[in-house]
Amino acid sequence: AAPSPKMMENTVFMSFTFYSTILILKMYVIAIITGQVRLRKKAFANPEDALRNGGLQYYRDDPDVERNLLSLSRAHRNDMENIFPFLFLGAVYSLLDPSPAVARIHFFIFCVGRIVHTIAYLLRLKAPTRSVAYGVAQLPCFSMALQILLATTPYW
């Protein structure tokens, strides 16, 4: 279904929707990569998956798979801890009628920070790449949270 004309008029919300969708797709990619790692090495965590992919001999642990899955799992958990709050903050922030250019910068910085953070996890980039990406992505969230609090303080 096409967005309502009223929603299409809110350029900030449409920008937020664009960047949020990119982040959700990034999370799906991590989930797909997780399955592909197990499939490629034929090391399945569940007997039913092993049976479907060659037999119970593939219901096993593999050190390479486990190491990769640990990084994927941490990246995915970190995404949930950061992207979900962004979805709330960005949606409410969009309702405050902020400058479209400033809002787009907030959303862009968060999105790029999260993508770099994931790449740093998966490619095991040297410190402090992941930490810097995390910190940079937090700045727009704190900014949006502060602006939301300032706008809603009269109603508490």
Structural features, described:
The protein is 78% helix and 0% strand. The protein is built from 6 helices and no strands. Helix 2 runs parallel beside helix 5.
Concise synopsis of the structure shown:
The protein has 156 residues and is mostly helical.
Q: Which helices and strands occur, and which strands form pairs?
A:
Elements: H1 5-9, H2 11-41, H3 47-52, H4 63-94, H5 100-123, H6 129-152
Helix pairs in contact: 2-4, 2-5, 4-5, 4-6, 5-6
What labels describe this entry?
156 residues; mainly alpha; 6 helices; elongated
Put simply, the count of helices is 6
Mean pLDDT: 93
The helicity comes to over 70%
The oligomeric state is single chain
| Main sheet properties | none
Give the overall silhouette.
elongated
List unreliable stretches of 5+ residues: none
Distance between the termini: 36 Å
Note the run of SSEs as H and E: HHHHHH
Structural class: mainly alpha
Question: What is Rg?
Answer: 20 Å
- Strand fraction equals under 5%
Q: Count of DSSP E strands?
A: 0
